[in-house]
């Protein structure tokens, strides 16, 4: 595996510091629903039996491994991330599970893949890191479109903004107290979980995220909310060549 990318940005440092407790905290504070939602995203990724799939910002590899478990040996599955520490965890998981995935160290702003390399790209609970108050947002979206084959799909499962004011207030309270405070204590990295809670609370609504994807150049975009709107799954399709004529 390549050496660590130099001159890490703040988010890269954050995710290089928390791998040892990352999965534990995700399971604990979502009551294991994060796994259910990743499995749902993986199911959507493999719908239509795409041959080449990518787990973008794979972290410790859960979405890629779920894709592999659901699709069997029919597809080529790759996971990419900019944290070598996260990828090491993913490599251990893959070896222990016997599932075949390729793991690549790479920057989402300059993905190390050719144009039209993938029929489906999935991302689980990392899209807000690419788009929330991120000056490189448009570059990330452009790269995703570049590596997607025409007609390919981009599947996003991410925290969201509940429509109900009461549910929104409850979600914000939970993120600020349980996730930010307790996550910081368990991990030993309070700044990381303050950021994670803050970005989740202030992320786009489903309609706003749909608008962002359409503005970036995607064609049809569908979404469904999860658990009263605290999370959502979006499916955005790259236009076919015939649609560009």
Walkthrough of the structure:
- The structure is a single chain.
- This protein has 245 residues and is of the alpha/beta class.
- It has a domain at 33-159 and 204-244: Rossmann fold.
- The chain has helices at 10-17, 19-29, 33-46, 62-71, 84-97, 127-131, 137-147, 165-187, 190-201, 206-216, and strands spanning 52-56, 76-81, 102-105, 118-124, 148-159, 221-226, 231-237.
- The protein has a seven-stranded mixed sheet, sandwiched between helices.
- Helix 4 links the parallel strand 1 and strand 2.
- The radius of gyration is 17 Å and the shape is globular.
Compact summary:
The chain has ten helices and seven strands.
Low-confidence stretches: 1-8
CATH topology of the domain at 33-159 and 204-244: Rossmann fold
> Count the helices. How many?
10
Q: What's the total count of β strands?
A: 7
Strand content: 15-25%
Mean pLDDT: 87
Architecture (CATH level 2) name of the domain at 33-159 and 204-244: 3-Layer(aba) Sandwich
**Strands in their spatial order, largest beta sheet:** 3-2-1-4-5-7-6
